[in-house]
Amino acid sequence: MSIPTIDFHKADDATTRPQLLQDLRHALSEVGFLYLSNHGIGESIVQDLVDALPRLFALPDPVKESVALVNSPHFLGYSKFGSEITARVRDQREQFEFANELPDRYGFVVSAGTDSPSPPLYTRLQGPNQWPNFSEVPRFREIVESYVAAMQDLAMRFLELVTEALDLPPHSLERFTGPQDRIKLVHYRPSSPSSSADATAQPSSPSSSSSQGVGPHKDSSGWMTFLLQASDPSIRGLQVLSKDGEWLDAPPVPGTLVINMGQAFEVVTNGVCKATTHRVLLPPGEYDRYSVPFFQGVRPDLTKSDLKALWDRHFDTSAKGWKMVGRESDEGRNIDGPFLRGRYDTWGEAQLRTKIRSHRDVGLRWYKDVFDKYISDD
Questions:
Q1: What is the pTM for the complete model shown?
Q2: CATH topology classification for 5-375
Q3: In terms of DSSP bridges, do strands 247-249 and 289-295 run parallel, antiparallel, or are they unpaired?
Q4: What residue spans define the domains of the chain?
Q5: Cis before residue 233, ω within 30 degrees of 0?
Q6: What are phi and psi of 45, to 5 degrees?
Q7: DSSP states of 41-55 as a string?
Q8: What's the gap between Cα 277 and its chain centre?
Q9: pLDDT, tens digit, for every residue of 331-361?
Q10: Which of 147, 121, 163 is nearest to 24 (CA)?
Q11: CA–CA gap between residue 359 and residue 71 (Å, rounded)
């Protein structure tokens, strides 16, 4: 299997659009990952962000930790190396997480002390950012917000193309998105010589945990992920698990974004479009790696019962058109996915559970009442 490239510009030409839709349908249902070229995001918007990343992560630790994630019940802010856990192993990356600005609706209702019932606890995931005031990174907030706005527009335009490629009525997938999209600014340091020698091993195994940038997972933070690999093409790290269980490199390709389907997309399409398992190995050698994933938001109150009509009408998995349905490697099938497995009725609760398990310091500070429940629900 290879990772296909979809030329977004071909959607604008009536002579190339039919083949593009066919290629996109194949990428969605049989691969789960793709490169998107000619995506239309302004070069200056991308370059401003790429240029800011090395300066951002070169800041002293106390400065970065002034907006530590643990201070935010919305899981927005900075987390240091080893703070996040994936596949039971600590990830060796540092990152800032931001989102489009929303008020803390949950905190407002609770603090107001009204007789109105409190919103579901998962509503607390939505809220305002912690914006740093870094003089060393001029225009930082402006740069991030410009990129987020551009990605929001691209994500919705791409979603409409996906809707057409899957033979769905216009806007039929749009209603499952929102209200808050997220972005991570991520930094990986080079692996040590001993760990780079083990770069082909499974990072979830004890012998190779030092090479784990991010452990094997299916994205749970959004509907679709749009990844900017913001380093030189020679600096690799991202790997995709094929349906046959083979790890494939997904190296940076200048001018493209990498797109993959999240767990919500797999649920909404009734398993027709699998959320593909992927991981990041620490870059070997001496150069740092930077990446910027954008996660298109999912409606928090989404339930599987909301999807029955869509499944029955458009994603009948016995239909001949979906020949790859159900095909997945053993490792892929065993990836943690509480909403996929039906452990929780709403997407929002499944997402809260995932966030708490990944960032346990935040969970202990802000979600003590449910911490043990989510940590031990395997």
A1: 0.92
A2: Jelly Rolls (2.60.120)
A3: unpaired
A4: 5-375
A5: no
A6: -65, -45
A7: --HHHHHHHHHHHHH
A8: 12
A9: 888 888 878 777 888 999 999 999 999 999 9
A10: 163
A11: 12
